[in-house]
Amino acid sequence: MPKGSGKVVAQNKKANHDFFIEETIEAGIVLQGTEIKSIRNGRVNMKDSFARVSNGEVFLHNLHISPYEQGNIHNHEPTRMRKLLLHKKQIAKLIGETQQAGYSLVPIKMYLKDGYAKVLIGLGKGKKKYDKREDLKRKQMNRDVARALKDRD
Fold this sequence. Notes:
Layout: E1 7-11, H1 13-18, E2 19-29, H2 35-40, E3 44-45, E4 50-54, E5 57-61, E6 64-65, E7 82-85, H3 88-98, E8 103-113, E9 116-126, H4 129-152
Antiparallel strand pairs: 1-8, 2-7, 2-9, 3-6, 4-5, 5-7, 8-9
């Protein structure tokens, strides 16, 4: 199965709006207790999440996984820091690339693949305001063209 495929649980729609995604990496995620049950129910929010490399490990910050409703007093904390599972070579490469100015690690989507939760992380360079405006104009023109072609048929 190619990377990024599987049952998509959550997507970070702002990632493509705010960043030029140059490279993507599939990573596993370390979960506790009932977190996987909440993920399977689709109770995940990736809106303000980001990844950071520290001490040779990659951590995902601000990923909100809602507590499981049928859980008990040992439920997880919703926005705790979660470790991502990557190979040492991948981590070394990410350290080198994120040292450059303007680059950051952005989670793009979370999905279930062969029963495991996976996160697709992108190496992104931040967009300027005028880049975002250009993208919006391009999308609007494509919509207008598609609408005109549909009305013609």
